[in-house]
Design brief:
The protein is α/β, with parallel strands linked by helices. The protein is built from 13 helices and 14 strands. The protein binds pyridoxal-5'-phosphate.
């Protein structure tokens, strides 16, 4: 039986057509008309003024922080419940990530803890130039509260929207929160360019500087003058073509993921001790991944047992992100934790949610989960 992944790429003839067109146009290098069009279409889609396409979401986080002058000696609070890329990018600059715990119902950064830890760091004389809230699994963070905290302390907000493209909160779309936001188009994200990312911002100078840094910081001189350290982070024109096709299908892909969430909701309805994570108020989420949270005392089974049963049928599932403050590499890093993210890590399990899953796959998943229930009852 072929493996069912959590979130595998969903590509059609449209993607093939865009790629072929890119190749035939002769623009195979990491610049060209597809990159320009992709940036414009994405900026329009999320309501941002400027967009810079890069070769990963991690690169996007890194270059915004570099452009803001974040570096050694700085402290940058971020969500502890995130993928390592967020913390890694902060670390590349020489700054220290500070891990902040989650709100229980969304898993997103707790603005009260955020406020306290910035206050504490500043009282110790530390420099806190920026914060990086993350939109976990496609749910926007509480940017109203975050903006108030940021204004109070005079820090910049870089929104890590790698998982939340297509989601919104109020009238604002993921990708246009904060002073800048980033997207990821990695292979497992809601849409993919194989690998890629983007910086979105209303700040033209920031966008220009990120673009400049991403192509080795070449000054406009025929002999390539360099006054700053640059990076090789630009997105290729071929992959931007793939991105344009995916963007044209984004709403359709989100609708499929939402239908999978409904399927899990129906499947686990009435199962004691199980809740669909982030289900409450999810009408504007992109449903990138659907996870369950299990109270094993009530359910009388654990997420590891369900996960092992699914693995027997070659179906992937995965705990929620292991919090960064529990990762060996960040063990000595400052944190403000209450145990919420750790509890979510212990009780949450992400289930296959990709838009490429068709009826054959969803039937396999449903049967495997039902068989698991029967074994336990
Ligand atoms: C995927 C992801 C990233 C990194 O994106 P890449 O394109 O893989 O570099 C950053 N932050 C979060 C929260 C992510 O999920």
């Amino acid at each position: 039986m072929s493996r069912i992944f959590l979130s595998s790429p969903d590509v059609t003839d449209l993607e093939e057509q865009y790629l072929v067109d890119s190749i035939r146009s002769g623009w195979v290098a990491p610049l060209g008309p597809q990159v320009d069009a992709f940036e414009q279409e994405m900026a329009d889609r999320v309501g941002a003024h400027h967009a810079v396409a890069l070769n990963s979401g991690t690169a996007a986080l890194h270059l915004v922080l570099v452009s803001w002058g974040v570096g050694p000696g700085d402290f940058v609070p971020t969500s502890t419940l995130t993928f390592a890329a967020t913390a890694n990018a902060i670390t590349y600059t020489g700054a220290t990530p500070v891990f902040v715990d989650s709100d229980l119902s969304t898993g997103n950064i707790d603005p009260v803890l955020l406020d306290e830890i910035i206050g504490k760091l500043k009282a110790e004389g530390k420099s806190v130039p920026a914060i990086v809230p993350v939109d976990l699994l496609g749910r926007c963070a509480d940017y109203t509260a975050i903006a108030a905290v940021a204004a109070k302390h005079g820090v910049k907000v870089l929104s890590d929207s790698a998982e939340s493209l297509g989601a919104r909160s109020g009238d604002v779309l993921a990708g246009s929160f904060g002073d800048a936001a980033i997207l990821s188009f990695n292979g497992n994200k809601i849409m993919t360019t194989s690998g890629g990312g983007m910086v979105l911002t209303a700040d033209k100078d920031l966008a220009d500087h990120v673009r400049f840094l991403s192509t080795q910081a070449r000054e406009p001189a025929v002999h390539y003058e360099h006054k700053e350290i640059g990076y090789n982070y630009r997105l290729s024109n071929l992959l931007a073509g793939l991105g344009r096709a995916q963007l044209a299908r984004l709403d359709d892909m989100i609708a499929k993921r939402r239908a999978h969430r409904q399927m899990y909701d129906d499947l686990f309805a009435g199962v004691p001790g199980v809740e669909i994570f982030q289900r409450q108020g999810d009408e504007h989420d992109n449903c990138w991944l659907t996870a369950i949270v299990v109270d094993s005392a009530t359910a009388e089974w654990t997420t590891s047992e369900l996960s092992a049963a699914l693995a027997e049928d070659n179906i992937e599932s995965r705990p929620l992100w292991k919090p960064m403050h529990l990762q060996p590499v960040f063990v000595d890093h400052p944190r403000s934790v209450t145990g919420t993210a750790e509890a979510l890590f212990g009780t949450g399990l992400s289930l296959p949610s990709g838009s490429a899953l068709g009826p054959v796959e969803t039937t396999r998943i449903t049967s495997a989960i039902q068989a698991f229930f029967e074994r336990w009852s």
